[in-house]
Specification:
alpha/beta; 25% strand; Nucleotidyltransferase, domain 5; 142 residues
Amino acid sequence: MKLLGLDVGTKRIGAALSDELMITAQGIDTIYRQDLQRDLDLINGLVKANNVTEVVVGLPLNMDGSYSAKTKEVVEFAGNLARVVQIPVKTWDERLTTVQAERVLLEADMSRAKRKKVTDKLAAQMILQSYMDSRKKGQDNV
């Protein structure tokens, strides 16, 4: 069983993949967004190429847990994705993952240009790792 984690932004979508045992997540790709159908097709390609059985999409909640306009866009994207990939697509609280990813890369003294290329992939990795860790503890998703 493999999981695909996604950090969906307006310009880029970060992607991460779990190992077979669902112990670790690794960033695998950054998709530069062009249009919805192309984005969905590229993600479906990742699903098929990696034998993914479930997709986890980061849900950008407000700090108080409420929905924003961006949250609604991601929920709609996840619904569209579920129709294309035809496997379970779940959402997972992603509050502060992009901030955490930026902090990790800053601490690694990575240049701004390099950070921009890997931030989304690292955020997707953090979303997926958090989801997998919570499953081990028996918590439910958002």
